[in-house]
Amino acid sequence: MDRERVPLDWALSQNNLGLALASLGQRESGTEKLVDAVAAYREALKEQTRERVPLDWARTQSNLGIALRA
Predict the structure, then answer these.
(1) In 10 A of CB 18, how many CB atoms?
(2) How far apart are CA 68 and CA 43, in angstroms?
(3) pLDDT digits over 11-64, tens only?
(4) Nearest-angstrom CA–CA distance, 11 and 48
(5) Who's near 2: CB < 8 A, 6+ residues apart?
(6) Contacting residues for 28 by C-beta, under 8 A, at least 6 apart
(7) What are the two backbone dihedrals, phi and then psi, of residue 37, each rounded to the nearest 5 degrees?
(8) Are 67 and 18 in contact (CB under 8 A)?
(9) How far apart are alpha carbons 63 and 38 in whole angstroms?
(10) Do the beta carbons of residue 57 and residue 13 sit within 8 Å?
(11) What b/e readout covers 49-69, taking b as 16+ CB neighbours within 10 angstroms?
């Protein structure tokens, strides 16, 4: 997916990647997958700004919080 051409689709993919990584991270020992999930969510939030797509921004912020708490 091309971030330059379709930034919101790319951000959605990053959010979905974060969900998958967080799920794996909660099942595995160590924190590597959770750290990767946090990075994916933070990348998504660079395109999913509060002003641009407030509901997607809120959803990704929530996912980020859950990953950070885990």
Answers:
(1) 26
(2) 15
(3) 999 999 999 999 999 999 999 999 999 999 999 999 999 999 999 999 999 999
(4) 7
(5) 10
(6) none
(7) -65, -45
(8) yes
(9) 9
(10) no
(11) eeeebeebbeebeebbebbee
Q: Please give the structure tokens belonging to residue 35.
A: 């750290």
Closest CA to 8 of 42, 40, 46, 37: 46
pTM above 0.85, yes or no: yes
Q: Give me the helices (H) in 1-70, please.
A: 7-27, 32-47, 54-69
Q: Closest Cα partner for 62 from 51, 44, 47?
A: 44
Give me the residue label for tokens 């999913």: 48
